[in-house]
Amino acid sequence: MPRGIHKGAVDGAPTESVLVLHSDAGGRSGVWECTPGRFASSRDGDSELMHFVAGRGTITSADGTVHDIRPGVVLVAPDGWRGTWNIRETVRKIYTIWTAPTTTPTTTGEPS
C-alpha cells in the first residue's frame, strides 16, 4: 500500500510502500519498499530488525557508521537510533518492529 514521499526526505522523492503482515500491542511486521532518495530517520520508543531482499544504498548512523544496503543484509536499529538513508536502487526489506520496554529490567540474584 503506497504511503507517499518519506516525511524526512532531504534529497529526491523517496516514495514508500508498506504491507503490514502482523500488528498487535507489542509491535508489527511486514514488507517495506522505498524508491531512490535520501532521508533522515529515527527510532523513538521502538526497535527494528530489517532484512533486505532487494535494492542498493547505505544507511549512515548518527555516530558515522556506514551500513551497506543490499540483498541479504540484516540490520537492527535500536530504540534511540538516528541516521540517514541514501537509497540508490529501490529497496525492499522484511521488517519487525517491537515496542521498547517501559520498565528497566532487573538482574536476578543480585541485591539492588
UniProtKB/TrEMBL annotation:
Span of domain (S)-ureidoglycine aminohydrolase cupin: 27-95
SUPFAM superfamilies: RmlC-like cupins (SSF51182)
Signal peptide: none
Protein name, as recorded: Cupin domain-containing protein
Organism of provenance: Herbiconiux oxytropis
